[in-house]
Amino acid sequence: MDFTMTGHGVSVQFKVLRMGTDCLVLAAGGDTGHIGAIAFGDRGGCLSNAREGHREGVVTELIYRELESVVSGGLAVLAGIHVEGITKEQITGVVALCEEGAHRIAAGLREYQQEQKEEKGGNQND
């Protein structure tokens, strides 16, 4: 699942990779995408870390918290969103974009899980 969301003059690209029951989510954008922070763990807990001078931990933790109940295995969220001269309004906008993106990812993962259940159920009846 890959998509881009734009608002407040900033674009954020989301990429989702499912690996069995695990899931990797990348949120990157602005003027320069990079790795600024990571949140990872499983239903037992979350570890979070940001590179010095980076504030994307807010975004990685937000996305992680939205998805942790949907992902049954391990979950890793990486984010790097750099906007030169970013305003407070743009920061608020980026957080809102990431929250909306997390909702969209959660819905997509739920839909995928439902399709997988239906396929398995259908195969048992054949």
Automatic annotation (TrEMBL):
Residues 9-107 form the Prenylated flavin chaperone LpdD-like domain. InterPro entries: LpdD_chaperone-like (IPR048844). This is Prenylated flavin chaperone LpdD-like domain-containing protein. The lineage of its organism: Bacteria, Bacillati, Bacillota, Clostridia, Lachnospirales.
